[in-house]
From TrEMBL:
The keyword Protein transport does not apply. It comes from the Bacteria. It comes from Paraburkholderia acidisoli. This is ATP-binding cassette domain-containing protein. GO terms for molecular function: ATP binding; ATP hydrolysis activity.
């Protein structure tokens, strides 16, 4: 199997776009995931695709890689129409995506991963010497310094990404989509990856670079396209789009969500006692995290997906165990990774994944809402049905859950009403500290309003609330917001922050940098 050759860089200037999406629309039911979106990526460049969560980036990538067919519009590669969806080999020859979560099979060798499902054979069996020899030639050609016989799971994240890129190039693809490639890398690894991307560009490889870290866009990319609310907002050379304009294009105008803004609240009385203390917390994707939340205070913890914010919230709720540091609730030390202990000491939680951590879909509203207090309702955790029904009815009324009654199966509820049931479960134990992780993800406007109104109510009761989210509307309810970047708390913003300032901090952009 020979290594494909490429055209010289000097020929790229006159080449047609490596990929061009024109007027692409994709609907899922009544929801438009993409609405008349266009994108043009020129040969040999790194082109950034940015936008907030839900902007349509993932849907566009699925269309550019042939995983979905657009309802309207077209996709061309090098001036020719995209191949039929069923022709996977033709798609592999044109485009590949290196995802944030690696598709490398860790228990196989590098050579086996490079040639998976297309191993060279001799007399009907795999020709191992030939496969290893061709793998070595491929790695040498693209100057990727890993051993072909190494177990993939023993490689660094950086090395596994480069192996994925080499695999894509071996099919003949010269257009690589990098989805959050730096999310799991440290500073030196990021520098090395960017250097390798630059070298590959010079050899004629084109990249579509997806990242929440806008500073990286300015470091590695020549052009940028912004999506917002499923629509194309702007495409421009990076050098002609200042940071403030890029952030403005991503955020737009805030919608009319009726959510109380913490900036209008009276200040918390001086000397309010502490409800939650986090000291020098460290885990697999965060380190040195320290902060405190007072009774009657709402604190936001925000950052990009890879910032470590979710892991910190889960550690406080006992869903995961920290590797170092301590968590105290009303002065009492919480044992690491112990949900029952966290509940007993007054921590309630709305977890990130409601389907896997927050609900039993086959059970009723009453069963789910009373799950955290079953021990209080009956001996040995067996609660009488009548008591569960009372809890269910009270939560339906308090949170405005649209259902036939407390016996209604949670699986039959809308996403917004399911999330209200998760909130009901968290509130049932009357927690002193309420941890909300992405509390309004995937719900409609009215459900958002109902869920966020709970924050004000709980605060007025003198409880502490930690809102772990990257959604701006969630964070407006907070008296102050802590910003995490690559595992560390890097900023604190009081209520009344400006959208562009907070987003710049989340994305690691210095607005004052020349």
């Amino acid at each position: 199997m020979s290594v494909p050759t490429i055209d010289p860089v000097s020929a790229l200037a006159s080449a047609p776009p490596v990929v061009e999406a024109s007027g692409v629309t994709k609907r899922f039911g009544s929801t438009a995931a993409l609405a008349n979106v266009s994108l043009r990526v020129m040969a040999g460049e790194s082109h950034a695709l940015v936008g907030r969560n839900g902007a349509g980036k993932s849907t566009l990538v699925s269309i550019l890689t042939g995983l979905r067919k657009p309802d309207e519009g077209s996709v061309q590669f090098n001036g020719a129409a995209a191949p039929p969806i069923a022709d996977r080999d033709a798609w592999r020859e044109r485009v590949a995506c290196v995802y944030q979560h690696s598709t490398i099979i860790r228990d196989l060798t590098v050579a086996e991963n490079l040639f998976i499902n297309r191993q060279p054979k001799k007399r009907g069996v795999i020709d191992w010497p030939t496969m290893r020899r061709e793998a070595r030639a491929l790695l040498d050609h693209w100057r990727i310094d890993v051993r072909e016989a190494a177990r993939a799971g023993d490689l660094t994240v950086e090395a596994r990404q480069l192996v994925e890129i080499a695999r894509a190039l071996s099919y003949g693809a010269r257009f690589i989509i990098l989805d959050e490639p730096t999310a799991q890398l440290d500073g030196e690894e990021i520098k090395r990856l960017f250097k390798r991307i630059d070298e590959l560009q010079r050899e004629g490889v084109t990249f579509l670079f997806i990242s929440h870290h806008l500073q990286e866009v300015y470091e590695i990319c020549q052009a940028v396209t912004v999506l917002r609310d499923a629509r194309h907002i702007v495409s421009a050379p990076v050098a002609e789009l200042p940071r403030e304009r890029l952030i403005e294009a991503m955020t737009g105008e805030r919608g009319g969500l009726n959510v109380a803004d913490a900036a209008a609240r009276a200040a918390l009385p001086a000397g309010a006692p502490l409800a939650l203390e986090v000291n020098a917390l460290a885990g697999h994707d965060y380190r040195g995290v320290s902060f405190a939340v007072r009774r009657g205070e709402v604190v936001g913890l925000t950052g990009a997906t890879s910032s470590g914010r979710t892991s910190v919230g889960e550690a406080i709720a006992g869903l995961t165990a920290q590797q170092a540091g301590e968590i105290r609730v009303k002065g009492a030390l919480l044992p690491p990774g112990d949900v029952p202990a966290a509940l007993a000491q007054g921590v309630g939680c709305v977890p990130k994944d409601r389907h896997h951590e927050g609900l039993v879909l086959t059970q009723s509203i009453a069963e789910n809402a009373s799950m955290t207090i079953a021990g209080r309702l009956g001996r040995f955790g067996f609660a009488p049905p009548a008591k569960k029904q009372r809890v269910g009815r009270s939560m339906i009324e308090a949170l405005g859950i649209v259902a036939q009654g407390p016996d209604h199966a949670v699986a039959g509820l809308s996403g917004g009403n399911q999330q209200k049931v998760v909130m009901a479960r968290a509130l049932a134990s009357h927690p002193d500290v309420l941890v909300l992780i992405d509390p309004t993800a995937g719900v409609d406007v009215k459900s958002k309003e109902a869920l966020l109104s709970v924050v004000d109510r709980v605060r007025d009761e003198g409880k502490a609330v930690l809102v772990v989210s990257s959604e701006l509307d969630d964070l407006r309810t907070c008296d102050r917001v802590l910003v995490m970047f690559r595992g560390e708390v890097v900023a604190e913003m009081p209520a009344g922050w400006k959208d562009h300032e907070l987003i710049a901090s989340i994305e690691g952009v210095d607005l004052h940098e020349e």
